[in-house]
Amino acid sequence: LENNKSAQKATYTMMEEFAITCVTSQEDLQDIITLFEFYAKSLSIDLSFQDFAEEMATMPGKYAPPSGALFLARSRNNKPVGCVAMRPLGSAGVCEMKRLYVDQEGRGVGLGRALANCVIREARKIGYTTMKLDTLE
User: Is 18 helix (H, G, I), strand (E, B) or coil?
Assistant: First the structure.
């Protein structure tokens, strides 16, 4: 992870309460895995049909640069409070936004929107022309 120098150095500050950064360290990666697990537990369905356990075991996997990205939001006291991921899909120029999650501490202040905007900007920077979403509800 630490060898990825271009997009992974991006930092986006959201208000004064949160900072959104690309995942660049093992600590960041572990924190995003924890948030992904909270995300999965918050759903009313089992994600085994998406091979969620395998996805967690092989992180960053399909979200690795240069064609993917992982963003992590931290509170002012450095607590991980939100995340979002992007991965390529089969067609050229097409990616998918995945695992957008904000915990209780980060809700109600626009952090989810800020995370979505970060991953959209990154997709454009990489050269994607289409981003798809998979909603589970």
Answer: strand
Q: pTM (2 decimals)?
A: 0.85
Omega into 66 within 30° of 0, i.e. cis? yes
Cα(120)–Cα(70) distance, rounded to whole angstroms? Answer: 12
From CA 50, how far away is CA 54, in angstroms rounded?
9
Contact (CB, 8 A) for 14 and 73 = yes
CB 23 within 8 A of CB 1: yes
pLDDT in tens, 116-132: 999 999 999 999 999 99
Alpha-carbon distance of 100 to 119, in angstroms, equals 10
Name the token pair of 110.
Answer: 């626009």
Could you tell me which residues are beta bridge partners of residue 69?
Answer: 86
Distance CA 92, CA 124 (A): 13
